[in-house]
Design brief:
Layout: H1 2-21, H2 60-90, H3 94-119, H4 132-142, H5 145-157, E1 163-169, E2 176-182, H6 187-191, E3 194-200, H7 207-210, H8 214-221, H9 227-232
Helix pairs in contact: 2-3, 4-5
Bound molecules: 2-acetamido-2-deoxy-beta-D-glucopyranose (3 copies) and fe (ii) ion (FE2).
Signal peptide: 1-20
EC number: 1.15.1.1
InterPro entries: Fe/Mn_Superoxide_Dismutase, Mn/Fe_SOD, Mn/Fe_SOD_BS, Mn/Fe_SOD_C, Mn/Fe_SOD_N, Mn/Fe_SOD_N_sf, SOD_C_sf
């Protein structure tokens, strides 16, 4: 009787585990013991405002394509790469794992960067200027907000091809700096800095509206920066 009870308990526990990890129970015997939980696919986050909410600074057409097509493609590409990584790990194939790193960095970085970008923007009507300890730190670093803007725009102008311009913070010292990254490299991976604000400089983020004049897009985007959100990423240092 006690034996039946413990077998019943084991079955209940295993079904719970299988349900939680979305692994069919019949496949348990084939799974390597080191990884019962599968990586959950990432999903495209909703825009935190309507697609036309950033007009006239960024058109609805750009936002729809940028979010629904481009960001979705990074999400899909990352999920596909993770499935391939799991196969490569199961096969202990080091070359295959190494080959996948650029695909994981590109698509995973594309997801991370765009998720931060959407949250960094806000409709013109809800815009509020930078304030508090971040405003003071920007003053301390560049002399004035206008000097910071000029430095940021200058750095953006220097990006050849696709990339991003960033306001970042050193997590160890609290120091602010402006950096640029190529393609979908992340600020954290490239420079060990915390991203406070990132502006997408890929053509897909402005071309339909600003054509080849990227500087006009960077100049206009100041009107829709979500400074309270950017400030929430900043850690004040005494
Ligand atoms: C995760 O995404 C990959 C690639 O799009 C897909 O093949 C796979 O079926 C997805 N897995 C789940 C559990 O949705
Ligand atoms: C390991 O993966 C590579 C692809 O990156 C493939 O060419 C090779 O055949 C694989 N090796 C084995 C032993 O499966
Ligand atoms: C930043 O400096 C300007 C002068 O350049 C000053 O008017 C402003 O109050 C300063 N802001 C902060 C938050 O210190
Ligand atoms: Fe983009």
């Amino acid at each position: 009787m006690a034996k039946f009870a413990s077998i019943a308990l084991l079955v209940v526990l295993l079904s719970g585990l299988c349900a939680a990890s979305r692994v069919p129970m019949s496949s348990l015997g084939r799974l390597p013991g080191r990884r019962l939980l599968q990586f959950a696919n990432i999903t495209l986050p909703d825009l935190p405002y309507a697609a036309d909410a950033l007009e006239p600074v960024i058109s609805e057409e750009i936002m729809v394509l940028h979010h629904d097509r481009h960001h979705q493609a990074y999400v899909n590409g990352f999920n596909t790469a993770v499935v391939r990584l799991q196969s490569a790990q199961d096969a202990s194939n080091v070359s295959a794992i190494v080959d996948l790193t650029s695909l994981l960095n590109f698509n995973g970085g594309g997801h991370v960067n765009h998720a931060l970008f959407w949250e960094s923007l806000t409709p013109v009507e809800s815009f509020v200027p930078v304030s508090g300890s971040l405003a003071e730190s920007i003053n301390d670093t560049w002399g004035s907000f206008e000097a910071f803007q000029a430095a940021f725009e200058g750095a953006a102008a220097g990006v050849q091809g696709s990339g991003w311009v960033w306001l970042g913070q050193d997590p160890a010292t609290g120091a602010l700096s402006i950096r640029t990254t190529a393609n979908q490299d992340t600020l954290a991976a490239k420079y060990k800095l915390t991203p406070l604000l990132g502006v997408d400089l890929w053509e897909h983020s402005y071309y339909l509206q600003y054509k080849n004049v990227r500087a006009d897009y960077v100049d206009a985007i100041w009107q829709v920066i979500n400074w309270p959100e950017v400030e929430s990423r900043f850690t004040a240092t005494a």
